[in-house]
């Protein structure tokens, strides 16, 4: 009988504040969708870093005869055969180095022509203008500075490039987007909490006569507050379900269908459905608990029992 009464009160409260309840559902859904999206964005950045960092190399570019004219690091002239062999030997002796590949000037020229054959400058570049290099695969890409410190300023080495730095701009941009999503999520969350508090306040005010009678007949505080808390929890749960649908549809639209980024960007390792599904229970739990706690706090102030 008590359960039936609580359920009937929930239905009455939702009908009386239908517009505000809808606003709560929408705001909770948007804030939780942004929260889930931020978690997935962070997972995407982590996945891409693991995927790409495992493939990037540290490149040691060696001096050629053209570099000698410009002075600087290569002022002593092009790299000698002895210097080249010593550099290779020292690289292979380093514990953090997994593999060393020597790319000759002719090979660099061939690769350049393959990538930039449609540009005007490709017709005037000659093999002797290309730099030979050592492509170093590290066991741990984060330890690039060990190689850079060991070979910086060494005779025959023109420059050292960590290919990881090329990807950092992309990752920084994605992290920036993640921070922006979290900021908007926080703003939407504040709006949702304010709506929940106002909804509970209006509902408690509109039913002050019923709650007064219940207080007189000896009903407990928990029993009086339960319908209001359940109303907020129900609205939050609906918002959480909408947020889950938005995350599922968003992942499908962006990666598999619609934009089809997985086909347009085959070199990018996108997150799978398992990552999205793993986030959904957390979204639902927050959608259920957040409005309930907000309603409980609001009731302490607006419903004196």
UniProtKB/TrEMBL annotation:
Part of the ABC transporter FtsEX involved in cellular division. Keywords: Cell cycle, Cell division, Cell membrane, Membrane, Transmembrane, Transmembrane helix. Its main location: membrane. The keyword Zinc does not apply. GO terms for biological process: cell division. InterPro entries: ABC3_permease_C (IPR003838), FtsX (IPR004513), FtsX_actino (IPR047929), FtsX_ECD (IPR040690). NCBIfam families: FtsX_actino. Residues 183-301 form the ABC3 transporter permease C-terminal domain. This is Cell division protein FtsX. GO terms for cellular component: plasma membrane. It is a multi-pass membrane protein. It comes from the Bacteria. Residues 56-160 form the FtsX extracellular domain.
